TrEMBL record:
GO terms for biological process: carbohydrate catabolic process; deoxyribonucleotide catabolic process. Coiled coil: none annotated. Pfam families: DeoC. Belongs to the DeoC/FbaB aldolase family. DeoC type 2 subfamily. The gene is deoC. This is Deoxyribose-phosphate aldolase. It is an enzyme of class 4 (lyase).
Length: 309
């Protein structure tokens, strides 16, 4: 939709209130026993299994894709009463150069390939090159594109330029879903996070995402709360239900449950489905599998028995 700065420019976030609300989630809501196992399986289905390292290879991507296709050991799938092959991750996320390898490794299993783009993680390259990178990733087979915004435009409150840039990126994505990474750890205030979220949504983002995973501070519950409120406000304004993706810093099954509780309480059950909720993570899956094994057997296994890929 066209930029409507009046819809958000006067909004200021009460940081202490946001932090209190976020801190209350774990104490007020708990999921136990069989229900916890079910929630953890849902968390697996929402993971964008990710490798974004400088030493990535086609072989590493292939191993990651094999884990995405079968993220739970067959004996645990059977013990939970699930159909073989019914549990898969939400996507596999890689650099543009690794998209062809991921597409080949996943085949027609139904797990989409997501690619970061636009000069990830800083985004400090000319717009023309950022758009070309999106177009390359889409042409190579990526069906989801994770773009990064220009943080300097947020600090200058240059909402028009930010809207124009993201709109151009949305156009370059074509039929691919676009996730707009705000890099919230570098935006300084929760008010900036809210404003940037609203601009990204107005510019056509299908998802808004907290972090690149490369900042010193990545996904936190207060930041996620503010972004969820922006999604809720934008839905009232436009009728469009955008998705949300926390990334970076989610390492334990307890983290996954906390964010699922946030989604259910702030946005509703539809936002506990992979169509509207994703978790950007790599090591998280191993701890979830470990917790599910405990649910099945009553015993904790060593972490090294649950390989990431």
């Amino acid at each position: 939709m066209p930029l409507d700065a009046d819809a958000f420019a006067r909004v200021a976030v009460n940081t202490s209130a946001a932090e209190r609300r976020a801190a209350s989630l774990g104490g007020r809501r708990s999921v136990k026993k069989a229900w916890q196992a079910a929630w953890l399986v849902r968390a697996i289905q929402c993971i964008d299994l990710t490798t974004l390292a400088g030493d990535d290879t086609e072989a590493r991507v292939a191993r990651l894709c094999a884990k995405a296709r079968n993220p739970l050991r067959p004996d645990l799938v059977e013990a939970l009463g699930l159909e073989p092959g019914s549990v898969k991750t939400g996507a596999v996320c890689v650099y543009p150069a690794m998209v062809p390898a991921a597409v080949a490794a996943l085949g027609d299993c139904g797990v989409p390939v997501a690619s970061v783009a636009t000069g990830f993680p800083a985004g400090l390259v000319p717009l023309k090159q950022r758009l070309a990178e999106i177009e390359y990733a889409v042409s190579a087979g990526a069906s989801e594109i994770d773009i990064v915004i220009s943080r300097s435009l947020v600090f200058k409150a240059d909402w028009r330029q930010l809207h124009d840039e993201i709109t151009a990126m949305r156009s370059a994505c074509g039929k691919a879903h676009m996730k707009a990474i705000l890099a919230t750890g570098e935006l300084a205030t929760l008010t900036n996070v809210y404003h940037a979220s609203m601009v990204a949504l107005m510019a056509g983002a299908d998802f808004i995402k907290t972090s690149t995973g490369k900042e010193s501070v990545n996904a936190t519950l207060p930041v996620s709360l503010v972004m969820c409120r922006a999604i809720r406000d934008y839905r009232r304004l436009s009728g469009f239900s955008a998705g949300f993706k926390p990334a970076g810093g989610l390492k334990t099954a307890k983290d996954a449950l906390s964010w699922l509780v946030l989604m259910k309480e702030e946005l509703g059950t539809d936002w506990t489905e992979p169509e509207r909720f994703r978790i950007g993570a790599s090591s998280l899956l191993a701890d979830i599998e470990r917790q599910i094994e405990h649910s099945v057997t009553g015993r904790y296994s060593a972490a090294e028995r649950h390989a990431m890929a």
